[in-house]
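Module 6 notes. Inverse folding takes a fixed backbone as the condition and produces residue identities as the prediction. Think of it as a translation problem where the source language is geometry and the target language is the twenty amino acids. Below is one complete input and output pair. Work through it position by position during the lab.
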């Protein structure tokens, strides 16, 4: 991207504002005409008026200069005002064009680009472009028109000296051209490094809970230091090269200025050039040198800086959405219709397939739950139904219509979706619910809130539906944010309602209320991804996914009776449950804990009676790696993450799973950190309680210790 491309880009930006550009050009002619008039007046004064003591001519020249000065001053002010207004319009148009284009891009694009880098293109890069498109462009116009006006006048004063000026101009202006190419690349690399730095800052701010809890501040600082060094290295190179472009041209200007003065003085000494003409020529040449200096020292480096911003903006504009309406796409009917996945295979870029040859039919108006372990492809099915992605093989249809053949607008208009992470915008509660339907009335907003079981909570707030929720709902609890998301989906009265772990942050009572609400919703298809089988139990159909394939399909009773994957999942979750009085665990379920597999029923009953219910909020450290273990944890409700040394999630624990069993016999150190993802209810058994229960059963204690030793050894 050379300077010529940058100039063409600037001209393209100004094209819709050519009238303003023409006015600026005329006003600049007035400005520069004043400089030519001053030089001509000097010639007349020195060569004619002063030698002839011509007072009348002197007065006439002074009046003319005063009038020209006033006109030039007005023109200068007008240029600044018109340029500022036009620049504001151009920047607004650029930002709007960029933003609208970004809205058309597919999710795959956003997964490849960090949000902070995209923000940098709207701020840092556009600021660079602004300087090149506006203030520096005006300076370039002033310089160019100055040369257009001054050069003919210089030739009229003395063609020989004017020839030297014309010879020096290309050298002065283009002298740093080779350096300019390197400076442009250096500036682009600087902008890329700054984008990476901004991404690091945003990532650090977003993950501050993890940074604090895992003591990653020093590690984050070291990593950030690397990015700072990269920015500094590119900054020094970019700034030095950009300055060198102007400095090279400046030396050429100064050299030719000295040459002009020497040659002019020699001609005057020989009587071949009148003194007034020499003074006028030197005065005009000083103006030409100033214009050349501005081009070389200000305009060109600014255009070099703008080139990096332009390139990054053009890269963004060159991105094309992967999910678009096909030619001839038609609207999808709003009524509920059968949804089918026909031999669908799909994988995210750079990853192994998430779905493999999936065949699935969801009847119109049915309520279907999709369950499975972490990474089984549950949420991917929903994303394909919403056409956030297209399958690599096979097709997804609604009512027999391939989603690639219908308009995205009609598909999304008939769909309401609630994702695992509540996605709210800064504003009021009412505003966030109303986002689900353009022009939603207050009555519709309140009806949706009642259906999502949040209306009473909203009315309890001093400002009711006008309550501000803060950035991303920061003033609300996780459950409140999720219920607002559900209300937002329900306000559009969708024929297809999609829930992606929508109740994961809700307490049991709220989840039960939402489940009852879903049962009352008629004349719509409901598809819910959930890890909580009590929520899936009352659905019309349950789909079980294993490693991206459909393993089982049926009702809850059918799948339990079948004794397959779902039955094992149900046994794990149903043996542990929250109740109105606290929590319970089936004695027989405790045998699923390897340490207790051979324990007698009496011991299991005693253990069940000693379990303590412990509730922890989301994003809470249960224990850290290397801490001495002192209790067993059973997940009664919620989801927790097992986190490695580098902060990555190694595994996800959910209802009916347990961890820390070896701590019942020995004060072993924890092998990983565990942190809650959602609010969690744990049933815990302390080591001292367990040891007391084993005191009267030495043979059982010996067997448990043998099993523990085998497990500790990896057997």
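Target side of the pair, the amino acids:
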């Amino acid at each position: 991207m050379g300077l010529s491309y940058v100039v063409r880009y600037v001209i393209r930006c100004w094209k819709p504002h050519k009238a303003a550009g023409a006015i600026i050009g005329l006003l600049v002619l007035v400005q520069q005409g004043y400089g030519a008039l001053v030089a001509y007046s000097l010639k007349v004064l020195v060569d004619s008026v002063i030698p002839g003591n011509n007072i009348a001519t002197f007065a006439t020249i002074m009046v003319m200069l005063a009038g020209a000065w006033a006109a030039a001053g007005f023109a200068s002010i007008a240029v600044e005002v018109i340029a500022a207004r036009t620049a504001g319009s151009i920047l607004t148009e650029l930002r709007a064009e960029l933003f609208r284009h970004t809205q058309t891009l597919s999710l795959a694009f956003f997964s490849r680009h960090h949000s902070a880098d995209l923000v940098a293109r709207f701020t840092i890069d556009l600021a660079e472009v602004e300087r090149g498109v506006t203030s520096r462009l005006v300076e370039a116009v002033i310089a160019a028109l100055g040369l257009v006006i001054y050069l003919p006048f210089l030739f009229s004063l003395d063609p020989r000296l004017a020839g030297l000026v014309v010879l020096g101009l290309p050298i002065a202006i283009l002298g740093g051209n080779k350096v300019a190419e390197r400076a442009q690349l250096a500036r682009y690399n600087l902008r890329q490094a700054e984008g990476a730095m901004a991404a690091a800052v945003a990532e650090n701010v977003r993950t501050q809970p993890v940074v604090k809890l895992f003591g990653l501040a020093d590690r984050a600082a070291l990593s950030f230091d690397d990015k700072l060094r990269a920015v500094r290295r590119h900054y020094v190179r970019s700034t030095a090269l950009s300055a060198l472009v102007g400095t090279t041209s400046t030396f050429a200007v100064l050299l030719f200025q000295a040459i002009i003065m020497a040659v002019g003085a020699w001609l005057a000494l020989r009587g071949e050039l009148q003194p007034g003409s020499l003074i006028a020529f030197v005065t005009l040449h000083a103006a030409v040198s100033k214009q050349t200096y501005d081009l070389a020292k200000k305009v060109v480096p600014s255009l070099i800086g703008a080139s990096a911003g332009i390139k990054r903006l053009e890269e963004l504009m060159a991105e094309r959405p992967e999910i678009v309406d096909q030619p001839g796409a038609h609207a999808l009917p709003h009524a509920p219709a059968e949804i089918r996945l026909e031999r669908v295979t799909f994988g995210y870029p750079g990853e192994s397939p998430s779905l493999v040859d999936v065949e699935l039919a969801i009847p119109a108006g049915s309520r279907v739950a999709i369950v499975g372990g972490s990474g089984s492809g549950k949420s991917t099915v929903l994303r394909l139904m919403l056409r956030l992605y297209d399958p690599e093989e096979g097709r997804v249809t609604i009512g027999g219509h391939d989603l690639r053949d219908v308009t995205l607008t009609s598909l999304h208009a008939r769909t309401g979706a609630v994702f695992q992470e509540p996605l709210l915008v800064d504003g009021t509660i009412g505003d966030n619910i109303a986002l689900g339907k353009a022009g939603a009335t207050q009555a519709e907003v309140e009806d949706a809130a009642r259906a999502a079981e949040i209306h009473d909570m909203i009315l309890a707030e001093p400002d009711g539906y006008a309550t501000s929720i803060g950035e991303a709902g920061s003033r609300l609890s996780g459950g409140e944010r999720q219920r607002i998301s559900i209300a937002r989906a329900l306000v559009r009265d969708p024929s297809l309602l999609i829930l992606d772990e929508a109740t994961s942050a809700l307490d049991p009572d709220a989840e039960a209320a939402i489940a009852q609400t879903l049962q009352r919703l008629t004349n719509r298809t409901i598809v819910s991804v959930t890890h909580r089988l009590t929520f899936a139990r009352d659905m019309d159909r349950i789909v079980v996914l294993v490693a991206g394939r459909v393993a089982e399909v049926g009702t809850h009773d059918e799948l339990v009776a079948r004794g397959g994957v779902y039955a094992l999942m149900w046994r794990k979750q149903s043996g542990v449950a929250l109740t109105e009085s606290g929590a319970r665990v089936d004695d027989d379920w405790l045998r699923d804990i390897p340490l207790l597999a051979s324990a007698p029923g009496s011991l299991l009953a005693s253990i069940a009676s000693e379990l303590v219910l412990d509730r922890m909020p989301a994003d809470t450290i249960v224990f850290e790696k290397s801490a001495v273990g002192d209790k067993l944890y059973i997940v009664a409700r919620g989801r927790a993450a097992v986190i490695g040394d580098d902060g990555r999630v190694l595994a996800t624990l959910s209802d009916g799973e347990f961890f820390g069993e070896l701590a019942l016999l020995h004060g072993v150190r924890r092998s990983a950190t565990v942190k809650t993802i959602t609010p969690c209810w744990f049933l815990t058994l302390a080591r001292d309680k367990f040891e007391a229960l084993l005191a009267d059963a030495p043979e059982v204690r010996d067997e448990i210790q043998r099993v523990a030793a085998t497990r500790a050894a990896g057997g």
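Reference fact for the lab report: The longest helix spans residues 217-269.
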